[in-house]
Amino acid sequence: MGFHGRAAAHKPKITMRNFKEVTFLFVSYLPADIISTVEFNPTGELLATGDKGGRVVVFQREQESKNQPHRRGEYNVYSTFQSHEPEFDYLKSLEIEEKINKIRWLPQQNAAYFLLSTNDKTVKLWKISERDKRPEGYNLKDEDGRIRDPSTITALRVPVLQPMDLMVEATPRRVFSNAHTYHINSISVSNDYETYMSTDDLRINLWNLEITNQSFNIVDIKPANMEELTEVITAAEFHPNQCNTFIYSSSKGSIRLCDMRASALCDNHCKFFEEPEDPSNRSFFSEIISSISDVKFSHSGRYLMTRDYLTVKVWDLNMESKPLETYQVHDYLRSKLCSLYENDCIFDKFECVWNGSDSVIMTGSYNNFFRMFDRNTKRDVTLEASRENSKPRAILKPRKVCVGGKRRKDEISVDSLDFSKKILHTAWHPSENIIAVAATNNLYIFQDKVN
């Protein structure tokens, strides 16, 4: 299944089967600190993960050296900081988790990096910067930082900058709070890089990155009577090239495209994407499995991709009636929906990502499996992220799941899948075939085969 990233025109043809693990990262995540989001920055040089403990870990890609050119693909820990702490809302007697729901990077404008991170209620803008010099020679305090007696100061000193060991600092520059009654499920930065939107179950708010005490409500689907509530917002994203256009998905399996130029409150959508349900497939679980857990614009802005429980769908923005492509992620689970409902797995929210050229899409499954679909050849592959089966620089072998009947040697039975091992969060390098896969509390980074 050949596919290429944006910068791969001069490279030899690569295939999905050649994905190769370049490093295994285990960053002392405690079992409770499950990775909850993964995101490359716009250049792909940095990779950030957030976890249930409110911590953000940033990895930096190794610079290429003549001695070890193969180490170029490796990512090492660059910075670790506590982004959110657990809080308690005394007015509502409500505990607010520290878990990081989403991370979004801003394009780099200077030597520092900026990212947005959010938990259920509060979005924070973080600055990550390097410091390799320190000032020395203060007049009013000594080298230990203690204030000097002014009467002992007899000469004026000029402070100088002295070299020191490189230190990476993460500082919160903005805190955007008190704007959401319900849990924030997504944030998205506009391509004007001046505004971003935060989305909860019933409302979408628009923020200016410079203003923390005011936001504009642009979508509100809360009914006057909450007993009439029939759907919630599950995800939202800005168009990559048009700062006035955004989409949001719902638990009813529909997607709405809105234009902020039409009106200040975008309750009336411009386009409505929904696939009519086949009455022959109607079941007790139909509404649950049709809920969209993630929605992403393609890099070109021409298509959008949605993930529901069993499928990934690609939609053309110019065709609202039905999806352009539908890919079955784990159709063999259709017969297991009853047990998946009982163990709450049916409510898992899987994410989906595009590769840099929009030709391949990736999403997660159970048993630490993740799936890739080539849109050009219509071929797909199932790969596994696990410490037992993956050694550094070993080629990943495709996995197959068998349903009933005789099982071949290299296949795994659908009855022996481990539903506690699930890949909900994945990320794809913006221009190269490098992927990050979060398997519970382990982070794997794979890249295409290096000859």
Automatic annotation (TrEMBL):
The entry's keywords:
Repeat, WD repeat
Q: Annotated Gene Ontology MF terms?
A: protein phosphatase regulator activity
> Can you cite an annotated GO cellular component?
protein phosphatase type 2A complex
Q: Record's SUPFAM superfamilies?
A: WD40 repeat-like
Per the record, the domain of life is: Eukaryota
Transmembrane feature ranges: none
Please give the InterPro entries that the UniProt record associates with this protein. PP2A_PR55, PP2A_PR55_CS, WD40/YVTN_repeat-like_dom_sf, WD40_repeat_dom_sf, WD40_rpt
| Keyword Repeat set for record | yes
Q: How does it assemble?
A: PP2A consists of a common heterodimeric core enzyme, composed of a 36 kDa catalytic subunit (subunit C) and a 65 kDa constant regulatory subunit (PR65 or subunit A), that associates with a variety of regulatory subunits.
Q: Which family does it belong to?
A: Belongs to the phosphatase 2A regulatory subunit B family.
Protein name from the UniProt record: Serine/threonine-protein phosphatase 2A 55 kDa regulatory subunit B
The gene name reads LOC115148498
